[in-house]
Amino acid sequence: MEFTWILVALVFGVGVRLLRFPPLIGFLLAGFALNFLGYQANDTLHALADIGITLMLFTIGLKLNVIDLIKREIWLGAVTNMLVWIAAFIGLASLLGIIGVVYFDGMDVKNAALLAFALSFSSTVCVVKVLEENGEMKTRHGKLAIGVLVMQDVIAVIFLVVATGITPSIWALALVLLYWLKPLIGKLLHLAGHGELLPLTGFFLALGGYELFSLVGIKGDLGALLLGMLLSKHVKAAELSKALLSFKDLFLIGFFISIGFTTLPDMNMLFVSLILALLLPLKFLLFFGLFTRLQLRGRTAYLSGQVLSNYSEFGLIVVALCVNLGLVSTDWLVILALSVCFSFVLTSMVYQHSHQSYNRFKDFIRRFERPERLREDILHQPRNAEMLVVGMGRVGKGAYEALSAVLGDKVWGMDADRERVKKQRKAGCKIMLGDAEDVDLWENIDHSHIKLILLALPSIGDITNINQQLKNVNYQGKLAAIARYEDERRKLLSAGVDNVFNFYTEAGTGFAEESLTLMGHYNP
After folding, report:
1. 3-state secondary structure at position 31
2. Residue 298 to residue 141: CA distance in whole angstroms
3. Rounded distance, CA 166 to CA 476, Å?
4. How many other C-beta atoms lie within 10 A of the C-beta of residue 514?
5. Could you give the angle at the alpha carbon of 225 between the alpha carbons of 289 and 234, nearest 5°?
6. Which of 92, 180, 424, 492 has the fewest C-beta atoms lying within 10 Å of its C-beta?
7. What domains lie within the chain, and their CATH numbers?
8. Sheet holding 499-502, edge to edge
9. 151 and 78 in contact (C-beta within 8 Å)?
10. Could you give the maximum distance between any two Cα atoms of the chain, in Å?
11. Which residue spans within 337-422 are E strands per DSSP?
């Protein structure tokens, strides 16, 4: 990648960060700026973008539970949304054609259906990036959104097979043997240790899955995803995902920049792409309506609908294929590229305020809920709890164990990760499933006897939001939190958190104190 690309991406990334927008918006703008300045995308940029998407799908697979994908709200929600969207778009395209809107006049039903299909997909890259930045990958609405994306990927593979006429090789049947190779791959992960060999092993598995599926005529990205899912239960799956995180983010910058190199549009193309961007609220309403009809809570339907309300990079692949087959004009590839960019920007901007907007309109949103509740959406009470540890990862679990040693059953934990909750319940922990950013949760649990809540969460944005929600429900106890940096610690204290533990600084202090205790020099 040329140094100029890195420089422009950095300038735009920092610029939008100063405006408090996600950096990915800056990377998108950087691509258009470089295109305007006369730079051309080369094979290196496209290779970086492809590696970024492959790593992203592999890490998604590492966090997926296959059982989640067969839930009715996921497969039925994904398929029904796509069908309803296509029907609605055909009707809208016909209406726009009748009133003479450029590019829609003269469009037949077949072309409208193909474009609708391309626009029905939500962006895996955008959704995962937004959820990761907000620490919501394992929340109820986050897992629902990821499940819908995976179902869309399956539909995408079927479409590519049908549209191109290229059927998978007979050797594709041999891919089922990967399941029996699972123990061997697991041993490879153990041998990789915890150093530089671990991310290298991750690259080998992700890219190897891509190449293996491509060799037998199946979309390579699906291979990376499925290989990750195969290893999702491995004890080192979470560690491998974290080891690949920085690499994935770096390579994905190449993807966002590459979109801007598609072409420079004229005013008519810009106008039509803005019309398509204005249809995104319709996409949200379809997701929200379907999810609530499938008995999901209003908050889950609202947040997952918002994060899925964008257009996908896969839409560009669909339209590019249609252009090559002579089914649609080349101009539509440019129009969809712009629409994808606009949708990324809108999703990133709107989702930043999604929790606040839900809190503001929650009474209205709840009117659309069904009276029946899915079993996993029923909230449980932390009985007899005086202390509640929110976030039962390594730090939270350590705090829980230390407090439990003193207070016993008066200490409870809470986590949004269902699998983590199940595992820790089996280990004997008093733990409840719950998303601490869910205002419905705090309004429906009895917190009058809870004297202290510890927020062991990585995002200060989440902590600040939870702090405000606890104030809104008149929580009378104390609140403690962790922070990674001193500036984050000061922000949380100024926001009203009673005590903030600087994870990096004070962990060393605690280590030193325990070491001195061994020598008899310290008596806490």
Report:
1. helix
2. 11
3. 64
4. 11
5. 110
6. 180
7. 44-366 (1.20.1530.20), 379-518 (3.40.50.720)
8. 431-433, 411-415, 387-390, 452-455, 478-483, 499-502
9. yes
10. 87
11. 387-390, 411-415
Does residue 292 or residue 342 have the better pLDDT?
Answer: 292
> What is the chain's length?
524
What is the SS3 assignment for 108? Answer: coil
Structure tokens at 493: 């204290």
Tokens read off for 255: 């993807």
Q: Which two tokens stand for residue 479?
A: 């609140």
For residue 181, give the amino acid letter.
L
Q: For residues 388 and 403, what is the distance between their CA atoms, to the nearest angstrom?
A: 10
| pLDDT at residue 39, rounded to an integer | 83
- pTM of the prediction? 0.74
Q: Which residues contact 63 (CB under 8 A, 6 or more apart)?
A: 137, 138, 146, 232, 237, 238, 241
240 vs 347: CA distance, rounded Å: 28
pLDDT digits (tens, 9 = 90+) for 397-437: 888 888 888 888 889 999 988 888 888 999 889 998 888 87
- Give the other-Cβ count within 10 Å of 368's Cβ: 14
Distance of CA 221 to the CA centre of its chain: 17
Q: When comparing pLDDT for 381 and 179, which is higher?
A: 179
- Record the tokens describing residue 105, joined without a space: 């006049």
DSSP string, 181-198: GHHHHHHHHHHHTTSTHH
- Is there a contact between 64 and 150 (Cβ–Cβ < 8 Å)? yes
Single-letter code of the amino acid located at 501:
F
3-state secondary structure of 168: coil
Tokens 């029946």 sit at which residue?
372
Report the interhelical angle of 313-324 vs 331-351 (nearest 10°): 170
Cβ contact 311:454 at 8 Å = no
Reference 449, options 497, 410, 401; nearest CA is 410
Q: What is the pLDDT of residues 305-315, one digit of tens each?
A: 999 999 987 77
Q: What single string gives the DSSP state of each residue in 470-499?
A: HHHTT--SEEEEEESSHHHHHHHHHTT-SE
Evaluated on CA atoms 226, 351, 339, 34, the torsion sign reads negative
Q: Nearest Cα to 343, choosing from 130, 62, 175?
A: 130
**196 residue type, one letter:** E
Angle (CA) 100-102-104 rounded to 5° is 75
